[in-house]
Amino acid sequence: MDDRITVKECKEAVKKFCEDRDWSQFHNPKDLAIGISTEANELLDLFRFKSEEQMQRMMESPEKRKKIEEELADTFFFIFRFAQMNGMDLSDALKSKLDANEEKYPKDEFRGSNLKYNE
User: Fold this and answer.
1) Which entry of 11, 62, 73, 118 is 20 to 30 Å from 3 by CA?
2) What is the CATH number of domain 7-88?
3) What is 23-50 written as a DSSP string?
4) Could you report the per-residue pLDDT of 55-97, keeping only the tens digit for each?
């Protein structure tokens, strides 16, 4: 479905869901940022102390993969809501960040490297 729905449509779906429940009053930047972090950490917790082999089995298990997708979706929910509530264009923000990273991490210098640009 990634090729059939736009970022704008995702933001609008989240907006409608929240407005139908009168949740805008709770969605200030701080609380939405906390939500992003909390949900991202719930995703991270699924992988804590797992070996490469265990993680591969998780990704192959329909039940575990569903849980991973749910936590990823929860993170997206808060990201979309944060952007929607604060008038941010996620596509422009991502493009801008990729352009900045292109300068920091030239492909000829950083291909296959996990070093930070200042290391």
Assistant:
1) 62
2) 1.10.287.1080
3) -GGG--HHHHHHHHHHHHHHHHHHHTT-
4) 999 999 999 999 999 999 999 999 999 999 999 999 999 999 9
